[in-house]
Amino acid sequence: MSPRDRYCNDPMFHSLVDMMVAAIMDAKYTPSEMRDAALLASIKYEELHVHPRAYPKEIIDWLNKKGNENDYDCPIHGLQDGPNCPRC
Fold first, then answer.
1. What pTM does this model have?
2. pLDDT 10s digit of each residue in the chain, 88 long?
3. Which domain holds residue 85?
């Protein structure tokens, strides 16, 4: 859906665009400043909503193991040295 179609069909988007146009027409902001503000708003939103990372099951299992810190295998190489894996 194009921005113009969305403007015609989405009341919230319509209101947002109208507020932005009014701010430009009142000489409060230039179109470039409005674009900058929209970009910064998107960035701030992404910073506030941290996305969980997906880890392989082997890494999750390794992280969940309990006991002595040397009592586990290297999750990548399967070696018995745990945190002292010579290949890591």
1. 0.52
2. 899 999 999 999 999 999 999 999 998 899 999 999 999 999 999 888 877 778 888 877 777 775 445 555 666 666 555 556 666 6
3. 52-88
